[in-house]
Amino acid sequence: MKNNKTIIDVRTPMEFMGGHVTGSINIPLNEIPQRVEEIKKMESPIVLCCASGGRSGQATSFLRNMGIDCTNGGSWLDVNGMV
What we know:
By secondary structure, the chain is α/β, with parallel strands linked by helices. It has helices spanning 13-17, 36-40, 54-65, 76-82, and strands at 6-9, 25-26, 46-50, 70-75. Helices cover 35% and strands 20% of the residues.
């Protein structure tokens, strides 16, 4: 992972295959609740992204409530421009 960040893309696998941030991990939004323990073990900071920032915002709120330090990076294209 670049810059010691963990980037989680919460889009569907089909969307992810159409383009994504190099080194990012695809965990679809609907799988986030079942994969909290796995996410807790990932390197911080954790940045979430999706197509527009809506789904990653939902995932960020959920994970913060679970005690995970993470931020909403918004669109994967925006995150891609930062790394």
